[in-house]
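Review form for a predicted model. The reviewer records the input and the model, then writes brief findings.
Reviewer: anonymous (R2)
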Amino acid sequence: MGCCSGRCTLAFICGMQLVSVLERQVIDFLGYQWAPLLTNFLHIVVVILGLFGTVQFRPRYVTGYAAWLVVWMTWNVFIICFYLEVGDLSRDSDLVLTFNLSMHRSWWMENGPGCRVTPISPPPSWAPEDHRYISISGCLMDFQFIEVAHSSLQILLALMGFIYACYVVKLISEEEDSFDFIGGFDSYGYQGPQKTSHLQLQPMYMSK
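Model under review:
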């Protein structure tokens, strides 16, 4: 019962992770955030493998999933520090999340709740010709805090997934040990029929 309950909970967590990261993948695609796109894709693949290992009793898959969650939590901590500009990090840097391929920022910058986008014309002389210059106002929440909330949710789900993954691996290992038939029979002193290669000769008496 404990194994079933733990596996069901881990499968539910994996499902929640898939839903949340797919939503994040769409948002990062709309914002041309190439580094998060690649990382999200790897996370989707690993979560699917972890879900498969949970359902099919494959502890190696679940162990790999748990190891990846440590990397995933580290990445999301970096994202939080990036948008909050901790240390020398700056969210205005083009190189970190877009590989310096575009000047786009988070999709939430222009599409956050309550945000009003106003084009400014003529654009300043330093603005690239293929980019528009806009003014954003009225946002109920700044885009960096929305990104921080998304990353915080991912950390919470990853932490829960890591704990239950370790628990499920432990339960599966114990269950495999309990179904070790050879060891089980030996422990109860069971011995199968034995064949002997020696013939036992019996004396024969002849009556006169």
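Findings: Confidence is low (pLDDT under 50) at residues 184-190.
Further findings: Strands lie at 116-119, 134-137.
Recommendation: see findings above.
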